[in-house]
Amino acid sequence: MVSALSVVALTGLASFAAAKQIWIQVGGNTTDNASAVFDPQQVTAKLNDIVFFNFTQGNHSVTQSLFATPCIPANAANSTINGFDSGLRDAGNFTAVTQLSVPITPEIENMTLWFYDYNTCGEGGVGGINVNDSDYENLDAFVVSTEKHVSCQQLIP
Ligand SMILES: *[C@@H]1O[C@H](CO)[C@@H](O)[C@H](O)[C@H]1NC(C)=O
Ligand SMILES: *[C@@H]1O[C@H](CO)[C@@H](O)[C@H](O)[C@H]1NC(C)=O
Ligand SMILES: *[C@@H]1O[C@H](CO)[C@@H](O)[C@H](O)[C@H]1NC(C)=O
Ligand SMILES: *[C@@H]1O[C@H](CO)[C@@H](O)[C@H](O)[C@H]1NC(C)=O
Ligand SMILES: *[C@@H]1O[C@H](CO)[C@@H](O)[C@H](O)[C@H]1NC(C)=O
Ligand SMILES: *[C@@H]1O[C@H](CO)[C@@H](O)[C@H](O)[C@H]1NC(C)=O
Ligand SMILES: *[C@@H]1O[C@H](CO)[C@@H](O)[C@H](O)[C@H]1NC(C)=O
Ligand SMILES: *[C@@H]1O[C@H](CO)[C@@H](O)[C@H](O)[C@H]1NC(C)=O
């Protein structure tokens, strides 16, 4: 009994200790390259990790979307999905730095979470959490599909 309980306790401790904070900077110089808005553009995050979006420069949003419906909030495309959405945040030039946190819960641990910036989505201002590079739904393919969706500028994040 004692050893079984110890194993449970150790397992709990191990998964707690393994949880990571993963940071994506939101800002950068988007003059010639809108993809620079998210640095890095894609990350890997496991169960209980927390992805932090650090708004540092410029006027941007981080809004979850679906691969098939880029530049549109996931919730607008499928109302059962309660996607993350920072709304537009103007960080100035490091003058109003804020963070949005996305905890990786069991519900989303095995999903690719695509996201975009409202102001640069059609130009490459997109990224992903837990992207499968071998799949046809990869980051390059998402960028290409968002560039075809110029209509994104009309939708409120
Ligand atoms: C951003 O990039 C453009 C083009 O490369 C450059 O002219 C500009 O000085 C850069 N801005 C900053 C703040 O680095
Ligand atoms: C644009 O920025 C992205 C993200 O930082 C980078 O991976 C890519 O190489 C850049 N493209 C160019 C043409 O500099
Ligand atoms: C968030 O951005 C601020 C301003 O650039 C920077 O000082 C800080 O180190 C960033 N935090 C992380 C954990 O990257
Ligand atoms: C931020 O971007 C939004 C959407 O493009 C725009 O309506 C708003 O005026 C911008 N805010 C600032 C301070 O530039
Ligand atoms: C909406 O998302 C749910 C999962 O959250 C999925 O089961 C359902 O098939 C989706 N609906 C459509 C129309 O894609
Ligand atoms: C932004 O702030 C940095 C120092 O933090 C400065 O070097 C840079 O020139 C500023 N850029 C603009 C466009 O004001
Ligand atoms: C996610 O995938 C892992 C590995 O295949 C599996 O152990 C876990 O149960 C999955 N999580 C959910 C919520 O399906
Ligand atoms: C990644 O995508 C490839 C191609 O669709 C697929 O064979 C593979 O199982 C995927 N890997 C994961 C971890 O889902």
Automatic annotation (TrEMBL):
Name of the protein described by the UniProt record: Uncharacterized protein
Signal sequence range: 1-19
Keywords for the protein's UniProt record, in alphabetical order: Signal
